[in-house]
Amino acid sequence: MFKQFIHTVFKAESKEVTQITSDIKSFYKNIEENSASCMADGRYFNNLITAKYWGCLNLKKGLSNREQDFLQQGILSMLLFLSFHFLENKGGPIGSHTIEIYKSIMYFRSPNQESMKLHHLTMNAITLVEKKKHGRFNQETNSEIYKSITWTLQNIILADATC
User: Fold this and answer.
1) Would residue 121 count as lying in a domain?
2) Residue 101 pLDDT more than 80?
């Protein structure tokens, strides 16, 4: 009975990881091929969240360090871009999940320095989204998110494409 339970848990996580990995690859490919138009296309971003990915940041069972990094950086990258989209007055699904996302990723830790930097950038972006929802957003802070997006493109998304 216990073996069956363990198998069911691992199988569910495996399917979840496969789906998230597929979504991340699709997101990266779309950004690589259409960065400017993709970022302006609300339909793409409004359909980006198909699951509560932020709850999967700490999945480790059966994943290599490289797979963990890919999964974690992909999830954080998607959240960062969704934040950018929201802050650009294009709406999107992230606005209704900010508290849940913040609580979920608050205690994220990784030995990978790029993952931790991306985590910090994403936490800042989620905070900005929450401020904007409550009318405490200053347009000058938009430059923070532009820098974050640029760093993520150069060091995570486009760097991953060359591997």
Assistant:
1) yes
2) yes
Stated pTM of the model? 0.80
Amino acid residing at 99: I
Q: How big is the chain by its Cα radius of gyration, in Å? A: 16
Number of residues assigned to the chain: 163
Tokens encoding 127:
């905070």
Query: How confident is the model over 121-126, as a mean pLDDT?
Result: 90
In angstroms, the CA 85 to CA 39 distance is 7
Residue 3, in any domain of the structure: no
- Other CB atoms within 10 A of residue 123 CB: 18
Whether 154 is in a domain gets the answer yes
Amino acid type, 82: L
Residue 6 located in a structural domain: no
The closest of 20, 143, 8, 13 to 87, measured between CA atoms, is: 143
CA distance 3 to 9: 10
pLDDT higher at 73 or 53:
73
